């Protein structure tokens, strides 16, 4: 039944979008297997990259927002300590570019949450997350394409 559902583009792309979104959030899931499987079924590589990148990036944006909202909620009841404010400032100054690694399992989620907590400007964070995720799926697709041909 699963093969039938995923063999039709009407279900395959939304399934990839949903799985990529969930994998891009704080849930411990992976979307690479579906991405590669759909590529083996001769789906258009560019469309797969766009759909997976969009879904995974939206999951990352949700994680960023959760970090930001968590920080605001914590700050409304507690005064952050001097060391916390120092660490937050360091991340905002020097750690923002680490969001290009938001695709790395486990570490990437922590970086995105920290960016939200540190109140990194949302547009900058979203652009860097999007670039990192796009690079990941592009590399995955091209590597798999080269391995198969």
What does this structure look like?
With 149 residues, the chain is mainly alpha-helical. Helix 3 crosses helix 7.
| Helical residue percent band | over 70%
Gyration radius from CA atoms, angstroms: 17 Å
- Write down how many β-strands occur, each being a DSSP E stretch of 2 or more residues: 0
Q: What gap, in angstroms, lies between the N and C termini? A: 29 Å
Computed structural class: mainly alpha
- Uncertain segments: none
Question: What pattern of helices and strands is seen along the backbone?
Answer: HHHHHHH
Number of helices: 7
Q: Strand share of the residues?
A: under 5%
What descriptors fit this protein?
149 residues, mainly alpha, 7 helices, 78% helix
Write the SSE topology:
Blueprint: H1 2-7, H2 9-24, H3 32-40, H4 45-77, H5 82-95, H6 107-117, H7 122-148
Provide a brief overview of the structure.
The chain has 149 residues and is mainly alpha-helical.
């Amino acid at each position: 039944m699963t093969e039938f559902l995923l063999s039709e583009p009407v279900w395959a792309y939304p399934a990839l979008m949903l799985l990529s979104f969930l994998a891009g959030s704080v849930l411990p899931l992976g979307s690479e297997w579906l991405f590669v499987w759909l590529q083996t079924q001769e789906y258009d590589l560019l469309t797969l990259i766009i759909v997976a990148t969009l879904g995974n990036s939206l999951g990352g944006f949700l994680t960023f927002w959760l970090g930001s909202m968590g920080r605001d909620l914590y700050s409304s009841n507690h005064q952050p300590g001097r060391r916390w404010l120092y660490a937050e400032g360091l991340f905002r100054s020097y750690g923002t570019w680490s969001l290009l690694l938001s695709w790395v399992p486990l570490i990437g989620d922590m970086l995105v949450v920290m960016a939200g907590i540190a109140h990194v400007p949302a547009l900058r964070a979203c652009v860097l997350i999007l670039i990192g995720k796009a690079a990941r799926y592009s590399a995955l697709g091209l590597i798999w394409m080269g391995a198969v041909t």
